[in-house]
Structure formats: C-alpha cells, structure tokens
Amino acid sequence: MSKKIFLIQRDALQPGEVRKVETPGCPLAVYNVDGTFYATSDVCTHATASLSAGEIVDGDLIACPLHDGQFHIPTGQAMGFPCTVDLRTYKVIEEGDAIYADLEQESEAAASAI
Ligand code: FES
C-alpha cells in the first residue's frame, strides 16, 4: 500500500532547515539533515507543539520549541523527558528535485530499528 504526496522541492529546504507541510490528516515536519531528507509528524507527542517551529540540533535531533524535548529525526525516537512517546515517521521518496512522502510507510531508519 502506498499513499505518495508531494512535500517540497529539494532547493527550497537547505541543510539544517525544517519546514511544516500540510497533508490530508496530519501536518508533517520535513527536514534536510546534511542533504538527506526526512519526514515526521509535525506534532510533538508531549503537548502538541509544532516541531517545525523548533530547531535541528546535534546533527539529527529536532528540539521542540515549547519544552525543549528532543526526537531523533531519522527514527522518530523520543530522546527523554519530557518526551516519552516516539514520533511517527514517514518514508521519503526523492524523484529528481522533488521530495515526496509515503503516508502509508514509516521511514527506512525506523523500520530497520524494530
Ligand atoms: Fe514538545 Fe513539550 S510540547 S516538549
């Protein structure tokens, strides 16, 4: 099963940047981590802040803007208090300069971490 949606053009998101993208059902946060694109739910699992308003720190962590909780971007893993529930991740598909997400599949890093 696949539900591919367009997220962003590659050159619209520079390394170290995160952007909110509205999709049917759930806003996503799209990240450029040193040239690799990732997508997660934009909604912090602690108290529903928008993670795309936060910052990428320590290479591949997103720091929530509300209480500074952190998640590992590739796997969605919650990194500790106050975040205890992992983020939903989405498989990213790159086709030329266009970046897509498959809303039916988790990221490859999350899938291989199970
Ligand atoms: Fe994100 Fe509290 S809402 S850490």
TrEMBL record:
Annotated keywords: 2Fe-2S, Iron, Iron-sulfur, Metal-binding
Record the organism: Cupriavidus malaysiensis
Occurrences of domain Rieske (ranges) = 5-101
Residues that span the membrane, as ranges = none
| Protein name in the entry | Rieske domain-containing protein
Q: Which cofactor does it need?
A: [2Fe-2S] cluster
Which InterPro entries does this one have?
Rieske_2Fe-2S, Rieske_2Fe-2S_sf
Family note? Belongs to the bacterial ring-hydroxylating dioxygenase ferredoxin component family.
Keyword Repeat present in the record's keywords: the answer is no
Q: Cite the Pfam families for this sequence.
A: Rieske
